[in-house]
Specification:
This protein is of the alpha+beta class. 30% of the residues lie in helices and 39% in strands. Strands 1, 2, 3, 4, 5, 6, 7, 8, 9, 10, 11, 12 and 13 form a 13-stranded antiparallel β-sheet that branches. The chain is elongated, with a radius of gyration of 31 Å.
Length: 326
């Protein structure tokens, strides 16, 4: 019976030892993915800020600028692209909607972001765009990969339609959570005019006058490394109209300037969502593999102990003393 039990324990130990790396290196890359129907809304504010008043053509100090950033999964488009790509694809229809202190629209910039559901690498397909302009992204945007590393990444900038390194600046603690801090600075760069503005300026008028739009920003992200989700984000942002003398009377006009930060209630809600998702990822990459490894070692030790006991010789039975004949 002992030998049979040791064989059963040995088989269980081998099974647990095989399952540990299988969960980490086979199941995790296939199970951990962004759902195609995800919807997320984030509100950011710049308080105070400088904003161009198109009625007076003067840059004025205002109490607050609000940016509503929405990410909506487009399930139909993701299924269409998956048929050709042969892998799990997520399509996010994003919108940055900016309002002034009176709640009126300042600008709106739509995007379509297509990426691999598991690795967050960009997937190039028809429909990839920023503000209606076709683009070809390189690197990440909005979301870092699962198990983010302590290194620089290529990050896509929607204003310039180009990618540039975003630099890892160290590990920090944010609201009791260990995070990786990343920073990117975009120098003054000429960028396209938004297609939706408070004042509609015909393209031919812009071309004749030589009016151009320029932009610079310092972008900061606090990333939870297990899920790759930003738990906080800020930008020190500035936009200008240059060569504006012919149309607006001054050569350079500040369109927007401010320090943009996530609103407090959204920081809290994002933190709660990241904490729950973090536990699920850790179950696949750490908790279950290590538990199975320890269980395999315990089962192996128990099997060897039972096997050793089964091979010990049985003690000889004591014989009664022989009485000599009288």
């Amino acid at each position: 019976m002992r030998r049979r039990a040791s064989l059963v324990l040995l088989a269980l130990a081998v099974f647990c030892a095989a399952m540990a790396p299988t969960l980490r290196w086979y199941a995790f890359p296939r199970l951990a993915k962004i759902p195609p129907n995800q919807y997320q809304e984030t509100v950011l504010e710049a308080k105070p800020a400088t904003l161009l008043d198109y009625s007076t053509l003067k840059a004025e100090k205002v109490d607050k600028i609000t940016i509503i950033q929405t990410l909506k999964g487009n399930v139909e488009e993701s299924r269409r692209i998956e048929r050709d790509a042969g892998r799990d694809v997520v399509v996010w229809d994003a919108l940055a909607y900016i309002t002034g202190p009176d709640g009126k629209m300042v600008s709106r910039v739509p995007e379509r972001y297509i990426f691999d559901a598991h690795t967050q690498d960009p997937v190039h397909a028809t429909g990839e765009m920023v503000d209606g302009d076709p683009v070809r992204r390189e690197g990440i945007e909005f979301k870092w990969p699962f198990l983010t590393e302590k290194r620089d990444y290529q990050y896509f900038d929607a204003q310039t339609r180009t990618s540039a390194p975003i630099h890892y600046k160290g590990t920090r603690t944010f609201r009791g959570m260990e995070v990786y801090y990343f920073e990117q600075t975009i120098p003054w760069t000429k960028v396209p005019m938004p297609k939706t503005m408070p004042v509609k300026i015909p393209p031919e008028v812009i071309a004749e006058s030589g009016l151009t739009r320029w932009y610079t920003t310092k972008r900061m992200f606090w990333i939870e490394p297990v899920t790759g989700a930003p738990v906080n984000g800020e930008e020190i942002h500035k936009e200008e109209l240059r060569n504006a003398g012919a149309l607006m009377g001054r050569d350079t006009l500040t369109v927007f300037e401010g320090h943009v930060k996530m609103r407090e209630d959204y920081i809290e809600s994002v933190g709660e969502m990241v904490s729950s998702n973090r536990l699920m990822v850790l179950m696949l990459v750490s908790y279950l593999p290590w538990s199975l490894t320890l269980l395999a070692l315990l089962l192996l030790a128990l099997a060897l102990w039972l096997e050793a006991r089964s091979r010990r010789p049985a003690p000889e039975a004591a014989t009664a003393p022989v009485t000599p004949p009288v």
